[in-house]
Amino acid sequence: MTPAAEASVRGPVSGPVRVLLADDEEMIRRGVEMILSHAEGIEVVAEAVNGEEAVALAAEHRPDVALVDIRMPVLDGLAAVPRLVALDPAPRVVMLTTFGDDQNVLRALRDGAAGFLLKDEGPQELISAVRAAAAGDSVLSPGVTASVIHRMLTATPTPASTPSPAAPDPRIASLTEREREVLAMLGQGLSNADIGRALGIGVGTVKTHVGSILDKTDSTSRVQAALLAHQAGLAH
Q1: Distance between CA atoms of 84 and 72, rounded to whole angstroms?
Q2: % helix / strand / coil in the chain, to the nearest 5?
């Protein structure tokens, strides 16, 4: 099982969510800490200024979620990801990024990060992302998901003999109508909670659909499923 696949099956957190914050910019750390400290059921247990310190503090404090900046001195966030997900227990790693940094985001996801969040997202989006990660949900910021998926699509060579439009993917044909709806929303980067609200169903039901989608499409993560949604023309 790959690190990304392993990260995708970690169980949800019970009790208060313990968060490690790693960012070399003090203003960013103060702002994030202030937002999370006022959120019910979330506690910032440690703060790091570089990736090396983040790994050491994660081993010491055993956080449930690690919010990690991609660009940091000494050891950057990208290099810290495989070391963080190798810990036992391992935190769910969410990368803090800026728009246009999608190449680095892809590397982090491949190395086992649970997702990514734009630094300029609002307070509620930050809180929701932490809770989603703690619940075992991937965090895909809608603001950058389309860019990441585009890079993944352009990086995947298409055989010259492939007809246009492409033949229907048999993996999509195996999905129910509701599963197709959920897959389309995965392609838009929506969380389980957002999908549930849009479809008028419970989060537990959404998780069941997502699990079925991953199984039927042989996808190891929500990111792979999101890519499939775009390839099949389901996500707009």
Answers
A1: 15
A2: 50, 15, 35
145 pLDDT band, cuts 50/70/90, is low
Q: Which residue's entry shows tokens 């603001």?
A: 143
pLDDT over 90 at 235, yes or no = no
Instruction: Domain 3-148: state its class.
Output: alpha beta
- pLDDT tens column, 95-115: 988 755 667 777 887 788 888
Domain boundaries, the chain: 3-148, 166-231
Q: Which of 81, 93, 99, 98 is nearest to 138 (CA)?
A: 93
State whether the Cα torsion 60-134-21-29 is positive or negative: negative
In this structure, which CATH number among 1.10.10.10, 1.10.3720.10, 3.30.450.20, 3.40.1000.10 belongs to the domain 166-231?
1.10.10.10
- Pairing type for strands 65-69 and 115-118 reads unpaired
pLDDT digits (tens, 9 = 90+) for 44-99: 999 999 999 999 999 999 999 999 999 899 999 999 999 999 999 999 999 988 75
pTM for this model (two decimals): 0.70
Mean pLDDT of 209-222: 85
Sheet with 65-69, edge to edge strand ranges: 42-48, 17-22, 65-69, 92-97, 115-118, 139-140
Q: How far is Cα of residue 64 from the mean position of the Cα atoms in its chain?
A: 14
CB count, 10 Å around CB of 37? 11
Distance CA 165, CA 222 (A): 25
Please give the Cα distance from 81 to 109 (Å, whole number).
Answer: 9
Q: Is the peptide bond before 165 cis (omega within 30 degrees of 0)?
A: yes
